[in-house]
Amino acid sequence: MLYSQELLKPDGRQLTLYSRYPIAEGITPPSPSNEPIAANPHLRWHPLRGEWVAYASHRQGRTFMPPPEYNPLAPTKDPNFPTELPQGRYDVAVFDNRFPSMTVAANNPPVNIVETLPANGACEVVVFTQDPHASLGELELSHLELLLQVWGDRTRKISEHPHIQYVLPFENKGVEMGVTLQHPHGQIYAYPFVPPVPAKMLSRQQAYYQEHQKGLLQDLIQKEIEDNQRIIYLDDHAVAFVPVCARYPYEVWLATIEPVATFIDLSEPQIKSLARALKTVTLKYDGLWNRSFPYLMAWYQAPTDGKPHPEAHLHAQFYPPYRTKDRLKYLAGTELAAGMFANDALPEEKAKELQAVIVNLETPVQV
Prior knowledge:
The chain starts with a strand and ends in a 12-residue tail after the last helix. The chain is globular and about 55 Å long. It is α+β, with helices and mostly antiparallel strands. Strand 1 and strand 2 form a beta hairpin. The longest helix has 21 residues. About 40% of the residues are buried. The protein contains 6 helices and 16 strands.
């Protein structure tokens, strides 16, 4: 069961609380500042790459690595020093980013020698839990099921805006990924176009579907299950695996077995299975070297253009920055300049390492 409550912050930003239990009325939403957000980001066209670049100079002043006692994502303890979240019984909180790269209100972009547009998108912060020390792997399965429903609810609400074409939930975890706030949280970026990476994947999926009348990722998943070398998690509705084509040594994909286009389309059994798969992957990551394991987790779904997308297949891709216990995989010459990844390890080898990590999904992790 998903309960929610929408609130308006003193600075005009939206805050939505989500819970597995009824939420008490009368919650007063705080904000670190009562000043209205005056961001007006814009887009500039990159003629050589054929893609948009966002410019949001106000982000230079965003919060950077505050001490634990000034955690802006923890519930407010002292009303004289308000944070982003109120006190109360709830599990997940979503609010408009104070330092957005895109806003639905962006307007009047500067004239330049290349095409410019207002950055009419949305940037939301998703606080996974009130516990500042937890991680996804440490949350109860029912809490993770709620989070999947939250991503669906945000996809539905954000896509109601006529400018929005694509909704991308993601989590940057760890300082190695550039995280500046250590409280467990992710973000949602909603774009006025389909960004280059999902656009390329969707183009490949569309071509495959037109030729075969079934999904490209759906077929790949079946081959991975039959090959059974790189599977990390498998049940009747969800699967997690190190893909045969992994670009990062510890890359993992997580998906429903039967394709669904977006979070909105998930059935209850699929939600439960995806929660178990998500908990398994994140616990295995943390258990690999018995420490918090950094990664980028990105969820890919169909565009929000109102059209049917039978080729799309909701799934997550995890990009961890480590190639060994103490060595990072830096993106350099061939990756950044040429766009071709070079992997120093075979996916089969890294899959075996993750397969060997024993996890318990039912026992809450002590933090």
